[in-house]
Amino acid sequence: HFLPDQLRPRFRLERLKGQAALDAITRPADRADVARPFETGVAEALLNNLQAGGADDIEPILLQVVCKRLWQNLSADAGSIRNEDMRQHGDVDRALMDYYNDAVETVVREVQAGGASIGQRRVRRFFSDSLLTPARTRALVYRDDVNGVTAGLPNGAIDILSRSDVNIIRGEARGQSRWYELSHDRLIPPVLAANEEWTRNNTTPLQRRLLEWTSRGRLDKDLLSAKEVRAVEDWQRNYPDDSLTPLENEFLQRSR
């Protein structure tokens, strides 16, 4: 209460250029409890990767995420950071996709450990349907403390996603309300790519049949049989957190 704005003020860390960016890459590795210096030219190559698109400077969050992933994936006996390490673990888009996938897995694991039911599909839909606009820009989501559910996710999950060690979304107080958004614009393509990859690898029979129905002109002959409808209904009872999309509901209703 001694501070006029309490602890709300922030200091913006500007984009890093040249030697400042290179120092941010190399000096933490040199100063770690077990130092692993970058071999000649490796840090410079990583900096060039972060500067893709011809930019002269980089966003600190991108540097932080990529370097953290690179460090975490080093072998325990690595004495230095080599070109091979950078090629395997220093790709910006892949690092950001892994960063997002880890956040999704973290929230699912912790919410389920607390006794609630939630699945990756539901969390990923929160990002693609609520935090991103059709124009692929960030959208704001209002925190609903009355019902305890924000854009389809329990507020406990929202709290995990915005936590400092996860930090995939960030909250902002506006008056008496709190709003959330994706923590950075640069995360938009990796989030969409990661969701597409996950959906491709986790397509349910319902979704495969839905794709056939829509691609062939929504013909009645491509609707679900009575046995298949019952299977979907059983799945819904077992996984109530993974609610169907409007199109999936339409497909199921037409089949009924």
Short description:
With 256 residues, the protein is mainly alpha-helical.
Name the features.
256 residues; mainly alpha; three-stranded antiparallel sheet; two-stranded antiparallel ribbon; 11 helices; 7 strands; 9% strand
Protein described:
The structure is a single chain. Helix 1 (18-31) packs parallel to helix 3 and helix 5 (92-113) packs antiparallel against helix 7 (155-161). The chain contains 11 helices and 7 strands. It is globular. The chain has helices at 18-31, 42-50, 60-72, 83-89, 92-113, 120-131, 155-161, 188-201, 205-215, 226-238, 246-255, and strands at residues 16-17, 57-58, 141-142, 149-150, 153-154, 169-174, 177-182. With 256 residues, the chain is mainly α.
Strand content: 5-15%
Question: What's the order of the H and E elements?
Answer: EHHEHHHHEEEHEEHHHH
- Separate helix tally: 11
Percent in helix: 40-55%
Largest sheet: 3 strands, antiparallel
Summing up helix and strand content along with how strands pair, one would put the structural category as: mainly alpha
Please tally the β strands and state the result: 7
Could you give the distance between the termini? 60 Å
> What do the pLDDT scores average to?
87
- Cα gyration radius (Å): 22 Å
Which sequence of strands runs across the widest sheet? 3-7-6
What is the approximate shape? globular
Poorly predicted parts: none
